[in-house]
Amino acid sequence: MNQRKHLTAEQKVLILREHLENQIPLSDLSEKHQIHINVLYRWKKELFEGASEIFSRKQVKQSAAEAREVERLGTKLRDKDKLIAELVQDNIALKKSLNGDN
């Protein structure tokens, strides 16, 4: 009995790339990699079905956890900006007092 091959996504892409870039027939790749030809056709179909997502301009929806994290980081950034502005004002006031511009 044949044992199933478990290939990573990267390996599948490399095999399909051989077919698409080098015009190697799927039948040859099937023999070379010892993969049933129907599996190769299924991978090719999945590749092209998923390709539209890559080229779509729609934004990926953020999960609730990601949205909370973005909000938390935005708040933290605003707080830091306020602190920097205060420090700059204090620094300017200090320079003026040292130079006697008061």
Span from first to last CA? 93 Å
- General shape: rod-shaped
Portion in helices: over 70%
Which sequence of SSEs, written as H and E, runs from N to C?
HHHH
Number of domains: 2
pLDDT averaged residue by residue: 88
Strand content: under 5%
Total helix count?
A: 4
Largest sheet properties: none
Radius of gyration (Å)? 29 Å
Runs in which pLDDT lies below 50 for 5 or more consecutive residues are none
Q: Give a count of the beta strands, DSSP E runs of length 2 or more.
A: 0
**Structural class by helix and strand composition:** mainly alpha
What report would you give on this structure?
The chain has two domains: 9-55; 63-102. The chain has four helices and no strands. It has helices at residues 9-22, 26-33, 37-55, 64-99. The N and C termini lie far apart (93 Å).
Summarize this structure briefly.
This protein is an all-alpha fold.
Essential attributes:
single chain; 102 residues; mainly alpha; 4 helices; 75% helix; 0% strand
Q: What does the secondary structure layout of this molecule look like, with pairings?
A:
Blueprint (H helix, E strand, L loop, with lengths): L8 H14 L3 H8 L3 H19 L8 H36 L3
